[in-house]
Amino acid sequence: MSQFLRVYTDGGARGNPGPGASAFVILKNGKVISKGTRFFSKITNNVAEYQGVVMALSWLSNNKQEVEGGVVAVYTDSQLVARQLGGLYKIKSAHLKPLAETVAELTKKLSVSVKYFSVPRGKNRLADALVNKEIDENI
Fold it and tell me: Which residues, listed in sequence order, are joined to residue 25 by a DSSP beta bridge?
C-alpha cells in the first residue's frame, strides 16, 4: 500500500545570525508520527530552514517503513528552500550547497518521491510553534 506523508519543517534565528532552532512534524493519515527540534547557538534563518528539512528526512531514512513505496510532501514557509530543493532556483550560496547535497543524499536513500511546497506561516503552525518554543527555552 502506498503511503502519503505530510512533512512540515521550519527554522528561524533571532538576530540572523543569532540563536535559532529547526523543527519538523511528520503526519501520516492526519496523525503526528514524529516531531523533533534542535537548538543552535548561532545560525542564519536560511540554514535553520534547511536543517529542518534535513532533520525530517533523516528521521524518515531511519524509519523507512513509514513511507515505503509512498510519496512525501514537504511543506515549509521558506519559499527559497522550497524552490531550491524543488529545482526552480539555483543554489548560489556556498554555505547552503552542502545542506542541499545532504537533502539529496537522504532523498536518494528513501527511494520515494519527495516534493517541496512553500506555504504561508499560518499553514505551518505546528513546526513554527516548535521552533519558537525551542528558542525560548534555550535563550
Answer: 8, 35
